[in-house]
Please model this.
Amino acid sequence: MTDPTVTPPIEPGASPPPAEGGEPPKTFTQADIDRIVKERLAREQARYADYDDLKKAAGEYQKIKEAQLTETELLRKQLAEWQQKEADWNSEKATWQLEQNEQLLKAEVRVQAAGLSFIDPDEAYLLADLGEVEAEDRAKGVKKALEALAKAKPHLIKTAGGPGSPPNEPKRSKADQDAAIDAYAEKYGIRRPPKQQ
Model:
C-alpha cells in the first residue's frame, strides 16, 4: 500500500506530475531565475541606497561632536586657569592686607607711644600686647595696650631728670609735643589720636 501524501520521485527529463488541482507545477528557466535574482537584488540595493549618505552624515556628526567636546575641554581648561589666577590673586591680596595692617598698627603705636612719652616707640611696639587690637578701633586699642605697658614697665617712659631721660635733653612744652606727634602722624599717613585734655 502506498502513502498518498508522499510524492513519488521524478525521473530526469520527465515532467512532474500534475498538482491536485489538475494544474501542472510551474517550472522556471535559467533566464527566469536570473531575472528574479536581479529583481530581488535591485530591491535590496534600493533598500540600502542611502547607506553611503547615512554613513557620511554619521561621520560629519562625529566630527561636530568631537569639535564640541574639544571646545568644552578648552572652556574647562580656561575656567581652571581663571580659578587658579583668582586664588593666587586672593592669596596675594590677603598677604598685602596683612602687611598694610601691620604697617598701620606700627605707625599708630609710634604716634601713640610718642604721645605717652615712651623713650623708644619701636621698643614700645615690640613689647606692647597688641593681640587684641582691632583694625576698626585701632587708636583706642593701641592706647590701652601702651598704657598697660607703661604701668607694667615704667622705666620705658621719659621722666624729667629721672632715670631713662638723657641728661642734656631739653624739656618740651605741650605744644612742642603736639607738633611732634602731628608731624609723626602726617609722615606715616595715620590719623592723629584725640588730644588729651
Notes: The chain has a mean pLDDT of 78. The chain is about 60% helix and 0% strand. The radius of gyration is 53 Å.
